[in-house]
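ok trying again, last paste got cut off:
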Amino acid sequence: MASVMEKPETFSVGGLNYPRPFKIRRLGHSGVDLEDVERGLKFYSDLLGFQVSDTIDFNRGDKAQEARLGSGIGYFMRHGTDHHSFVLFPLKVRRAMPMRKDWPRDVTVNQITWQVGSLREVVEGNRWFLDRGERVTRQGRDTPGSNWHSYPIGPGFNVNELYYGIEQVGWDGLSKPLSMHTIHYDKPPMLPHISEFQEVEKALAAGIDIRTGWRHRDTGVKMYDVGGVLLPRPFKIVKIGPIRVFEDDVAKAVLFYRDTLGLSVTEEINWNGHRCVFLRCNTEHHSIALYPKALRAELGLSPHTSLMAFGFQLAEYAQLRAAVDYLKDNGVTIKTLPAELFPGMGYSALAIDPEGHAMQLYDYMEQIGWDGKPRSASM
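nice, full thing came through this time. structure:
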């Protein structure tokens, strides 16, 4: 323990001093591992409107493993220009990975992702995690998506990702072609690294056709007026998050997300004797919420996953109402929970996916200003 005369260690992050060599800017992509990915795709893409941007085969061509465990195909999906904001991966194949074999069976969130502002923050953050003795499963850079990353594991076996530089999908809807997926690193790069622009220039010089990537095709009938645009469903997801997870030990989880990742505790509540903690990374009331697992059965949520809910924000209240009706008409179970469990949030409803994961559709999130204080409970 540092003596009273010692100053705490600080790191320059973009010219400002912070207690760790990175600063999380926002919650990034997440997703779920499913028994039946193709059935999940109908829910998340056809009904909720996520667009597929790429696929990946976790069997890596291993036909014997495929015969034993089934398809290893996973889907990267997006709601905006980020290459992916939500992913669907094959549960059985993922559980067979060496690092996951002994994990709790209810960990079906494939990762919780946090964006930082520079490649240097990822590289130095990874070194900082290792120096602190944190468990880091992977580091470097993957494709599809092209984002640099480090993967520390939280106390509930939730994989967290610190990342920078995700691929952007523009007006043409094309992702990077498969021939550029060779740009892969299994460890942090030497700094400074060449820019992505230079990587594309090298691909062009090598004769790669950069316009041959995946492009989503939505075959639904464009029949709904959504803010003046015709869409196949009467709503559009405009933002993802927050994520809500059930933890075996909420106090231990708070230490990880607050002291290791640097999130700020916005608010705590006691609901029926259960401590629930809400943490933020920017101005939103919370980016992640931690609940005790003892609350899961009390709320009537699926015991097969430690995910309480993942948030999808819609542009307005009218779209939220329309989304609930639309999903009900398409056979989706809609569930509501006490608003006290969601401080800082406006109206919301939980849409239950085919395997019991709750997706929280909502219309508003309270913003925290310069004084760092949320509205009081009485308000």
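cool. Residues 119-131 form the longest helix (13 residues). The mean pLDDT is 94.
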